[in-house]
Specification:
Layout: E1 15-20, H1 36-53, E2 62-73, E3 82-92, E4 96-105, E5 113-123, H2 134-141
Antiparallel strand pairs: 1-3, 2-5, 3-4, 4-5
């Protein structure tokens, strides 16, 4: 049986991105609005794809389309906290990849939330699923949950 998401720790994620929350991230209850977590997910995934996989979003022949997503919340976060976003890959196919993101308050070992999504890579114009390029596959393999930290 897999480990419950609530039990994740920093060591479970090989790649991190720091995120400084903004005043506008808060909702009327003075905590980060649920929808903002999906901005966090997009930020870390796309930063990784650009920096480590050589993806050039405006010119890439393949684009990733989100086909499913999820998020579980464990403790509230609020502006002006600084967050550490952790990224790993939990599943990878020929043209698809499933990411998991841990959202940590700066310096904390337990996540405030864990979520993620599945990308299916498709041809930019025709929107037909296509195999990942070798560079993309190599970069994403580095994030497979069974590998070591970057």
């Amino acid at each position: 049986m897999s480990q419950p998401l609530k039990n994740r720790r920093r060591k479970d994620y090989p790649y991190f991105l720091s995120y400084r929350t903004r005043w506008s991230d808060n909702d009327q209850y003075s905590h980060i609005n649920n929808a903002i977590y999906y901005h966090f997910f997009d930020s870390i995934v796309n930063t990784y794809l650009i920096e480590k996989c050589g993806l050039t979003p405006a010119a890439a022949p393949l684009i990733g389309l989100v086909i499913s997503s999820f998020c579980e919340f464990f403790s509230p976060l609020s502006f002006p906290q600084v967050l550490d976003l952790g990224l790993r890959v939990t599943k990878m196919g020929t043209s698809s990849v499933t990411y998991e993101i841990g959202v940590f308050s700066e310096g904390q070992d337990t996540p405030a939330a864990v979520g993620g999504y599945t990308h299916v890579f498709v041809e930019r114009i025709e929107r037909k699923s296509a195999p990942m390029s070798p560079g993309l596959r190599e970069g994403l393999t580095m994030l497979l949950s069974s590998r070591t930290k970057l």
